[in-house]
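My current task is to audit a protein record that another person submitted. Alongside the sequence sits a line of tokens, each denoting a local backbone shape. Please read both lines and tell me whether the tokens look consistent with the sequence. Do not assume that whoever made the record got everything right. Thanks in advance; the entry in question is below.
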Amino acid sequence: MKNERENLLKIAQKLIETGLNKGTAGNASVRCDEGFLVTPSGMAVEHMNAASMVQMAFDGSYEAEKIPSSEWRFHRDILASRTDVNAIIHTHSMFATTLACLHKDIPPFHYMIAVVGGDSIRYAPYALFGSQALSDNALAALIDRKACLLANHGMIALGRDLDDALAVTVEVENLCEQYWRALQLGEPHILSEAEMREVFQQFKGYGKWAI
């Protein structure tokens, strides 16, 4: 478990270093043993160490004298329901959060939308942070997807491991920035279903983006 704690800490640090999260915003988790590890609640990354990571069980119990992220419910529920997912990253990154406030799915304006596993990045309707309603909304938006926006909140990205989840996070934020910039000039052309089917076929076996 020591390696998992260290890896989760490194990801939390990387999210701050890259500007994908700031201050105490965001959180991350990784499947571990019979449960999962999640970043702690309300702790600035510069004050974290590997021992700060919180071990949780799927019944919601966690290590004594530690407090898990307030968003632990969606981490638990996603890991419990998705056997293809072993790591989750949640950010309040600038462009994903900006578009999340518009309450709109992101359509296939760019073929790399396929990275999330479908032809759109869905948004999950608004619910209070840390609530079961937020988790339920996120689960619905993540059906057959590796990422979603959380209305008036941020984004969630999923991966087979922490590195994969980080790669999805980076790509989704990049797509959100591109879409935002395109919208400043007008309505971007949207790829058709047939064109996206070709993309999915081309993506098969294509390195880290294989879906």
Summary: Helices lie at 2-17, 72-81, 94-100, 132-141, 162-185, 193-203.
